[in-house]
Amino acid sequence: MNLPAKFSFEIPEPILAWMGSAVKRVELSGRFIFYLREIFQQMFRRPFRQKILFQQIEFIGNQSVFIILLTGFATGAVFGLQIGGVFTVFNAEGMIGGATGIALATELAPLMTGFLLTGRAGSAMTAEIAIMKVNEQVDAMEAMGVHPIHYLVVPRVLASMIIMPFLCGIFMFIGVVGVYSIGVAVFHVDEGVFYEKLINLVKPADIMTGLRKMLIFSFIIAAISCRTGLAASKGAEGVGLATTNAVVRTLIFILLADFVISYIEVRWLS
Amino acid sequence: MIYFQGVSKAFGSHVVLDELDLDIPKGKITFILGKSGEGKSVTIKHIMGLLKPDKGRIIVDGFDISDYSKDEVRLYRRKFGMLFQHAALFDSMTVLDNVLFPLREHTVMSKKSMLSRANEVLEQTGLPHIKRKFPSELSTGEKKRVGLARALVAKPKILLYDEPTTGMDPLVCEMIDKLIVEVGNTEKELTSIVISHDLKAALATSHNIIMLYKGKVALSGSPDEFRSTKDPIVRQFFSGKIEGPMEFF
Ligand SMILES: Nc1ncnc2c1ncn2[C@@H]1O[C@H](COP(=O)(O)OP(=O)(O)O)[C@@H](O)[C@H]1O
Ligand SMILES: [Mg+2]
Predict the structure, then answer these.
(1) Given A177, A218, B9, B38, which residue has the most CB atoms within 10 angstroms?
(2) Which domains does chain B have, with CATH numbers?
(3) CB under 5 Å of ion ligand 2: residues
(4) pTM of the entire predicted model
(5) For residue A41, is it within any domain?
């Protein structure tokens, strides 16, 4: 056997780096699971922070309702235009309300609302908490014996899970209004036919599917946004970095969750 | 009151505390001196249970705090008041709400008695006129005083000051040093620990000084012992000169 004079086996640098980051990722996700456990533990601790909860609900609602209305209407209208174009070929314009309605309720509304709220409310949560972290306010809280997860995270998670599905419902409704406007104005659909098909096709269960999804997205948005804020590194650029990171992470997890939920519902529940 | 026995702490390979032994007496003002990055803040974070030592024991008020669970440590922290280096006031709350925070969180006092206690400490720190303002509207000196009021309000047994005068103008420094002494004099049982690199203030206001160097105690004693010491490290710190036996990095 002819071995080279000096035999050495070195793991190439990029693979080493990848292994290193993989280990780090596992460690990080371990810590994230620990964090989730802590949220659930703190959720049931006294005192219940009602005042902060309502402040947060108001904050998320105020900040996002306009953009939800605008995007909801536009999404419904554009979707209606596209679907209507196709349905005209089959003389089925009357169906556009129903068809768009299902898409809105089960998929479009939760996903779009989730994305919008990540950018609006989630990033604001991250920035606010990151600033507190950087200015040692989180340390001060710890030093006064108050659990930052109890004080900062739990109210935001609960507020999100209360108000965000509601905003998603608004998105669904205004989306249908958007389709309706297009249906009536562009495709001259009869109002009665529009309603009849809408109600025939879109079942309450479809709406529930969408809202259930949004409930899970709400948790994801708040939990990841707050966590990233709490982990912000010191220094002025820490806040900006945390905010961008939080948005990207949240979007990825929303897409992942959407896939998993849809898969479960299609494969096992229908 | 507070004992460190062989406490070591490293961040990665960077050893900050190296078998540190400390003894901080009850009801006195103790200054912990040392140059920047010497581990002063790390030391008080250990006292508060915000950091855990890699090795060694920390005994506060008769209890070994490494025996405590996380929840117990949180309860234990209620013994403390802490004034942060940059005050660390909650931006979203008024001065009054900042000061009320520890009372609302930890006591079962009535609203009225909370308010009267808060007003009392605001009076003591000379702040009653700004209690409706937000931290962003305050000067650095005012922020510090609000931080002190918040630290005092729940009647802590131990009051920690992290560099209370660093970066302040001489008048504010003087005022804060005065407040430290005043607070120490009014509350006889109160143990005050002041982190500082201000030697003059230490000599003028403390009962007891501990100087840290390379993760250990370089010298511990009364202001008089510090004035008369021959220890070259301490002498160099006194002189404020770069030339000498002290290593910087
Ligand atoms: N959480 C931490 N992680 C890593 N290093 C730290 C941490 N806290 C402090 N250090 C390091 O420990 C050393 C002492 O810090 P510190 O106690 O803040 O110094 P100072 O005496 O100026 O208050 C510094 O070199 C600092 O970088
Ligand atoms: Mg420090």
Answers:
(1) A218
(2) 2-239 (3.40.50.300)
(3) B 41
(4) 0.86
(5) no
